[in-house]
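Throughout our pipeline, every protein is held as a single compact record rather than as scattered files. This encoding replaces a full spatial description with a residue-level series of whole-number codes. The remainder of this section carries one protein's record, kept here as part of the documentation.
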Amino acid sequence: GRLSAFGNSQAQTKYHFKDGQALKGERYYRLKQVDADGSFVYSPIVQVNNNSGRADFSLYPNPSKEQRVFLQNPSKGERPINIQLYSADGQLQSISIVEDVEAGTTQIDLHELASGLYTLVIESAQHVTYKKLLKL
């Protein structure tokens, strides 16, 4: 992410940034501070443990030989608002989905996809989740 500076100051200035796409587990971050003249410095790398315990969407079967997979909602109140599927080379794929609100699942049709590794991007009102999908 990126934050703009508060301007020139001799006083200590605090900044805050929340990584809205941070996945659970160990993550590593560093800052890049860019001055007005274009020069920059990097901070030391820091380790952050994200053990939020947040329930996550589950994808099954995965890997899949099937023509469809299912996305299980983590809780009754959370459902996908937008689902996108990207191939390993970053190309957005056309997919068909059918949501079963009562069961808390979303069916994703894979019959037009070639075998390979894909990234599923699931947006809900609360967060964005990334899932790897291997179609055999």
Summary: The chain has no helices and twelve strands. The first strand starts at residue 25 and ends at 29.
